């Protein structure tokens, strides 16, 4: 069992005619069941054309009506990305995955307001996407480091998402679904949303949570874990040596006055029952020790 997407998911690429959209759609189509999964592209000015054999439609609504797709992935440039999200929401898709980095915060605030009361879930923006190993990948993560199994991964850091998956792979620990929620301060699905899905997934046996400095999302997740989570959670916070006040790459990864350091966040998580490590190279080893031999290796 997986969460959010599986081999039966049908996907629209918004921005497929651009360099990034075309490149990553081709890689996603080459992964597992991707050739059946990625069924349409959208460009309002190029409807009726094709990109690498994928039909391009003028709108998300038309693409959905013609193909039955329920998920979209967005590679549209930042000034137009919020409008692309709004179009996917208006088409009543199940899930929108926004890879685009650099969307103005004011645009995302308006988008969040627009999405209130709507059924569409948003992953990102500024995220690597998600992957159900052996079935489907939607986004920019490398597929070959992932292995199908029973560990859920949720992360704000794109690169550390890959590092975590690679370590789990080396320890023979497969993943049910790996999700990068993105590092921007205004986004869609958060830690608690994803943890709730993993907690309800019968085939996910443990979860790795990778956080960053800035904001209080990790502390909120830790408190939710303490009250509701029935499965072991392993935690790591990036930015152990980050100097206060300096932007570290992600809009959300910045320490400002009154916010907790990485060490303080890890202390909160540990107090709430999360098994933590201060060394990202130890994530796989720690998870292996928590699970015990009865869980290893996963099929």
Summary, kept brief:
Helices cover 34% and strands 21% of the residues.
Write the layout of secondary structure elements.
Layout (H helix, E strand, L loop, with lengths): L10 E4 L4 H12 L3 H4 E5 L7 E2 L2 E4 L2 H8 L3 E4 L3 H13 L4 E4 L6 H11 L5 E3 L5 E4 L3 E4 L8 E8 L2 H13 L4 E6 L10 H10 L5 E7 L4 H12 L4 E6 L23 H10 L3 E2 L6 H9 L8
Parallel strand pairs: 1-2, 1-5, 2-4, 5-6, 6-7, 10-11, 10-12, 12-13, 13-14
Antiparallel strand pairs: 3-4, 8-9, 8-11
Helix pairs in contact: 4-5, 6-10, 7-8, 8-9
Overview of the structural elements:
It is a single chain. By secondary structure, this protein is an alpha/beta fold. Helix 6 packs across helix 10. The protein is 34% helix and 21% strand. The chain is built from 10 helices and 14 strands. The mean pLDDT is 91. It is globular and about 55 Å long. It has a 7-stranded mixed β-sheet with strand order 3-4-2-1-5-6-7, with helices on both faces. It has a 7-stranded mixed β-sheet with strand order 9-8-11-10-12-13-14, with helices on both faces. Strand 10, helix 6 and strand 11 form a beta-alpha-beta unit.
